[in-house]
Amino acid sequence: MAENPERDDEPGSEDELRDMLQQFLAGGSGFDPSQLAGAAGLPNDPASIAALMSQLQGALRNSSEGIDWSIALKAGEDRAAATQLFPTDEQRAQLDAAFNIASLWLDEVVSVSELSDAPQLITRKQWVTRTMPVWTQLAEPVASSIADALTRALSEQAPEEMRSMVANAGSLMRSIGGTMFAMQLGQVVGQLASEVVSGGDVGIPLLGDGEAALLPQNVAGFGEGLDVEDDQVQIYLAVRELAHARLFRHARWLRLHMISSITEFSRGLRIDNEQLQDLAEQFDPSSPEQLRDALTNGSLIPPKTDAQLAALARLETMLALVEGWVDVVTAAATSRLPKSVAIAEMVRRRRASGGPAESAFSTLVGLELRPRRLREAAAMWQAVTDAVGGEARDALWAHPDILPTSEDLDDPMGLVTRLTQTAEGGEPALDDIDQALEDLLRNDGPERPSEPQV
């Protein structure tokens, strides 16, 4: 029988590196697993360390299967469950009543239809479980880029005698890098679950189509320190959540459009190889927190290109339009609440301080979720509402081509004028391009000289 020229026991084979890493993860060579747990953002306790070792060993066994996002889910659920409280019967009764009132009040100020499914009350762990598919979808392009760049950097920085070994085990190293990223994402989302109050709190549609939910434990925490009765806080937050969920159900195209825009932006990111090489050169195995910090502080993501800045501007406009609309309809629907202005100010303060979602997302994916033009968007929606009413306002969400643009945020009265003319049965004002097309179709161009008569 012929010998296999690529025997597993030859120097530089992938199995040799695999054996070395298995020994490393088993605690050989004086390695302290608690240091790696710290790098992954895990607490320094036996259960967390054992879970980390198990997950990394699983990555070794399944190195060709890509990033295992179930690791992010498990890490996030564990972190959220550690601090969660289950809602009491009294909380459930109060928030169910708040949702009922919120639905009735919203019906008076919006033309978008009600949800087909009843809103739900969920725990922190349930929020992680239900939103993680979207988080991983948004983070996957950056995770893959970091894992690939880490493999390249390790290959370049490895000693000459080990380079062939590292090169032959690219998928193995990529799997380990992806596992570390997935665990870090899980920790971030698990922490986020302790601070969000609802499914739509971060602006993007994290729950399923037409789904609304509040986290009773976090709603109670939101009201602490406010000189506002609990029932007013509950109703106000219920209105905001229903408004957000109804909008995405009404504008069927919006969810896919927003998530696709974010993932396309993320795919355009490139890892800063110089930063990564510096990390590889200066990496101290006794201080693996350097690796965690590099993954989470955004230093590996270089400044954005002009194309990315343009894409980011479009995304920020979309986020501002969504949040501005929610702000306007929530203010109208909660006008009966004596302290609605105080609660709205608290919401704005949380948003302006750059809340947890912005911090988590900007460091992991390189994208800030703070809608910079929120005030302009809210002012525009309010001007449209005052001029043509809620039905005409909400009709603008029917298709992306008729949705207000960043230019409309700059000049809301121009949009109001066009909508008013349309509402009064007049011809809408045409821009230069539309006017030129209209002239061409009507053959209204300059007259050609007549043919000479014979």
What would the principal axes of the Cα set say about the shape? Answer: globular
- Give the biggest sheet: 2 strands, parallel
Order of helices and strands: HHHHHEHHHEHHHHHHHHHHHH
Distance between the termini: 99 Å
Instruction: Identify low-pLDDT runs.
Output: 1-31, 444-449
- Average pLDDT value? 76
Q: Given the structure, what is the number of helices?
A: 20
Helix proportion range: 55-70%
Q: Which class of secondary structure composition applies to the elements?
A: mainly alpha
As a percent range, the share of strand residues is under 5%
Descriptive notes:
- This protein has 454 residues and is mostly helical.
- It is built from 20 helices and two strands.
- It has helices at residues 14-25, 33-39, 46-61, 70-81, 89-107, 124-157, 160-168, 170-192, 216-223, 230-250, 252-267, 273-282, 289-296, 306-333, 340-352, 356-365, 374-395, 406-410, 412-423, 432-442; strands at 120-121, 213-214.
- The chain has a two-stranded parallel ribbon with strand order 1-2.
- Helix 4 (70-81) crosses helix 6 (124-157) and helix 11 runs antiparallel to helix 14.
- It is globular and about 75 Å long.
